[in-house]
Amino acid sequence: MNQSKPAAGHAPAASDDAWLTAADEIVAAGRRLDRHGWVPATAGNISRRLPDGRIAITRSGCHKGFLTPQDVIEVDLDGLATIPRIRPSAETRLHTDLYRRILPEGAVIHGHSVAATVLSMHEPDRRSSDGSWDAIEFSGYELLKAFEGQDTHQASLHLPIYDNDQDIARLAELISPDLGKCPMGYLIRGHGVYVWGRTMDMALARLEGLEFLLACVLERRKLESRP
Ligand SMILES: CSC[C@@H](O)[C@@H](O)C(=O)COP(=O)(O)O
Ligand SMILES: [Zn+2]
Question: Which parts form a coiled-coil structure per UniProt (predicted)?
Fold first, then answer.
């Protein structure tokens, strides 16, 4: 765990309000995830794309519950830090792919909750027709209405699961073509969840809704497996 403070990853001008606001949002989001226990050790990463196109992301190896604005660094759309020798999140490509493909402005959050980890390793409810992903299916839950376009519990939403891969570029290539078809976000097997939104608050709301639903599924599977 690397909690020592590096030189600033981005040196914002005192008047760079947009950057300072984005960094503050990321720091606050990290604390909120930590309070829920969704970013154990140094797990998780958080980013924000500003209206001017700049991308702010957590640097690699920090505890997300103890971030400072200096732990938020700038990367380009290829995931490269704009200041040399500062290492952005190892999973930056998964964030920048979202910004490149479907989210011109917004926020991306990655967490490692127990429910996301356990359920992604469990039997899937559904499989894509081409076999490229499994999925967890949610239906009948009032909380489905927390997701965009949903106005009834009588709906069914799926959360795709992709196999984990330490080669993040390869993982990004596998997931990228499906990004427009993930109404809730996606899971990486045995690893965690990715969600996004047009603002940090929207991404956080999506994550909270999704974590609630995952916790419900986990509890129901425990009940169903009782003799
Ligand atoms: C603590 S292991 C988790 C990491 O391997 C990774 O999955 C993760 O979420 C955090 O990586 P990071 O490079 O700090 O953004
Ligand atoms: Zn991770």
Answer: none
